[in-house]
Amino acid sequence: MTGRTGGKDDEAGGKAFRRVSDELRVRIADGGYPLGTELPSQNALAREFGVSRFTVQRVLTELGNEGWIESQQGKRSRVVRNQRIHSAAPRASRSRHPMTLGPLIAEAFERDEVTLDIYTLTSESLDTHIHAQAERIRARIIAPERIALRMVLPSPSVIELLPYPRGKDPADDARLLDRLRGITERHTASLRKVLGELRTEKLVKSVEYEFRHVSLAPSFKLYVINGEEVLHGTYTPVERPVMLETGEEIDAVDVLGLGATLTHHVRDGRPDSPGSTFVDKMTGWFEGVWTLLTDEARAHAIASAHAG
């Protein structure tokens, strides 16, 4: 453990720190701040988000630890990495700009029916994108008639056994796992809330969402979008300082999810094409895990067997 601390956060419970960190991370990943550009000044970010400069400094430290930005004394932080999506789809090759997750999710929500099947470690990146689409729905920019989200996350019992995140000092493992659980719980609760509000306020005719858990340690993340597109990316192990809510930094082995390279595959109408084959393969994989391997599916099967 490094033992470095950033002092007491002036925003209660670190919520402001996490809010700013999540938003800046997604902006960078989606090209809102392109590679090589400078972020706004610390004072400007503090004013935009309504937080203290100390909170902004902590956020920039975390983003630097994760490899998104580089900072030098007396200069603004510069973006050195974003979310890379490799795609052979025609619309991707026609674009002048790199493909990113935000526009793909936005395009999916422009249909009457939106289906998302997600296998992930924390749901961190999806949360911000769903909120962005909810704002578009509220503004009457888009009007999907049905939204259906199915998400598979690691079982709580599996999180205890994950090989990541782990501290260089084993005494730090418990706090790192608590941080991981907190991230997952915060973002799944946020997803439930935003989707539930769309349903309760009748902004979308049909809103369905379900979260299940499986006894697998994720080595990759998977997005199946409208049954026609798949995003697939591995979780890459790295050594890096991890910042806790208290501001303390711990040297750890962790994985990169947001920011890891994703590959984009499209069902293109040709059954034997590489894109169609990959989409078929991964949609079948997700369906099998959802219906056969998740804790909830197994509990249902046991209950049905006892009832019979």
Descriptive tags:
3-stranded antiparallel β-sheet, globular, DNA binding, 7-stranded mixed β-sheet, Bact_HTH_transcr_reg, 308 residues, 42% helix, Arc Repressor Mutant, subunit A, disordered N terminus, alpha/beta
Strand content: 15-25%
- Rg for CA atoms: 20 Å
The strands making up the biggest β-sheet line up spatially as 3-12-9-8-4-5-7
The helix count comes to 10
Would you kindly provide a brief summary of this structure?
The protein has helices spanning 15-29, 42-49, 53-65, 90-94, 101-108, 124-138, 156-159, 173-200, 274-293, 295-307; strands at 69-70, 78-79, 85-87, 113-119, 146-154, 166-167, 206-214, 220-225, 229-234, 236-243, 249-256, 262-266. The chain is an alpha/beta fold and 308 residues long. One of its GO terms (biological process) is negative regulation of DNA-templated transcription.
Detailed description of the structure:
This is Winged helix-turn-helix transcriptional regulator. Strand 4, helix 6 (124-138) and strand 5 (146-154) form a beta-alpha-beta unit. The chain is globular and about 65 Å long. With 308 residues, it is of the alpha/beta class. The chain has 10 helices and 12 strands. The chain has a 7-stranded mixed sheet with strand order 3-12-9-8-4-5-7, with helices on both faces. The chain has a 3-stranded antiparallel sheet with strand order 6-11-10, with helices on one face. A two-stranded antiparallel ribbon has the order 1-2. The protein starts with 14 loop residues before the first helix and ends with a helix.
